[in-house]
Amino acid sequence: MNNKIQERFNALLSHKVVEHGAVPVLTDALARRLLERLGQLRLFAHAYPLLTNLTHGRVTPADLLDFAYRHELQGCHPRSSRLKSGTAQSVAKPKNGLANLMEAIKVPGIWLVSLNVFMVYIVYCGLTYFIPYLKEMYGLPVALVGAYGIINQYFLKILGGPAGGFIADKQFKSTSRYLKWAFLALLPLMGVIMLIPKSPGFIYAGMAATLSFALIVFSMRGVFWAPMGEIGIPQHITSSAFGIGCLIGYAPGMFAYVIYGAILDHFPGQQGYNYVFTLMSILAVVGFMVSSLLYQAVRKKSMATGGMSAAQA
Predict the structure, then answer these.
(1) Residues linked to residue 46 through DSSP beta bridges, in sequence order
(2) What is the residue-wise DSSP string for 241-310?
(3) Residue 152, domain CATH
């Protein structure tokens, strides 16, 4: 037998041995016998190294069985007395999609987030009518229409999302709280828009007021899904929660433009725009109420879990 192999064999048998004895010579017959015994060892996949993933549903018992099969193991051991009793539900049979959907429907927080998105989006739909408003009321020239559109559709949309996220995180410490006060901030801005004199001399004031209003809405639209994380939705129903949220939240796209357009058709001129902007203000008030309920739910959740300090009202 090779001397280096014998030296390695001696080192293995002497590792952490208190009383050193005589190490047998690794003959060919002994090596074959050891290899035969190693080949008879039964190896199993154990759930303990995957405790966290099993607990949070990122790994299922089926994944453990697949791991054992792919690595040619003799089986798997998903349960152990060393595991905490709280992991019992992690090895339970996973629910199907319909069961997850039904569970998500019963979570009040999902409905609050969805309605909150709905209110932001229906106010957002009203931004479309700012350009025709400026053209009809102030005689906005074609050159300024292009500049206004570029600022509104590109600059403010790009700036709004990061600005909303920064303010919500750094100043309000909660997205739901930021949305609550952002809805309220829309009301005085809309009042300014409606009170600015309707003459060409005030065209830049009208542009500034409408762009300021749009910036707040864009900042809200950039973060209106963030409360999904604040209300503590279980991971296994996240997809169902966002499905419900998208169905309800983006629903105004199907009818809001029809409503706003019908008002302008029925009441042409300044009267129609006053009605549209008044409706947007009423919707902002409703949005403030929905966001307030959502923020209360977030506070209760954070106080119950102790994960976040209670925010100021």
Answers:
(1) 77
(2) HHHHHHHHHTTHHHHHHHHHHHHHHHS-THHHHHHHHHHHHHHHHHHHHHHHHHHHHHHHHHHHHTSSPP
(3) 1.20.1250.20
Distance CA 173, CA 170 (A): 6
What is d(CA 206, CA 43) in angstroms, rounded to the nearest whole number?
75
User: ∠ CA(216), CA(218), CA(222), 5° rounding?
Assistant: 120
Residues 75 and 153 in one domain: no
Among 9-18, 78-87, 92-101, where is mean pLDDT lowest? 78-87
Judge if 225 and 168 occupy the same domain: yes
% of the chain residues with pLDDT over 70:
74
CB 174 within 8 A of CB 182: no
Q: Is residue 1 a contact partner of residue 27, using CB atoms and an 8 Å limit?
A: yes
| Position 142 in a domain | yes
* Measured CA distances, 185 to 51, 63, 127, 242 (Å): 47, 50, 16, 27
Whether residue 85 is found in the same domain as residue 107 = no
Task: Assess if residue 189 is contained within a domain.
Answer: yes
Task: Answer whether 235's CB lies under 8 Å from 56's CB.
Answer: yes
Q: 63 Cβ partners below 8 Å, 6+ apart?
A: none
Phi, psi (5° rounding) for residue 77?
-125, 90
- 311 part of a folded domain: no
Q: Please count the structural domains in the chain.
A: 2
Distance CA 151, CA 165 (A): 20
User: Does residue 310 sit within a domain?
Assistant: no
Query: How far lies 90's CA from each of 62, 79, 82, 136, in Å?
Result: 12, 10, 15, 62
82: pLDDT strictly greater than 80:
no
pTM beyond 0.90, yes or no: no
101 is written with which tokens? Answer: 């959907």
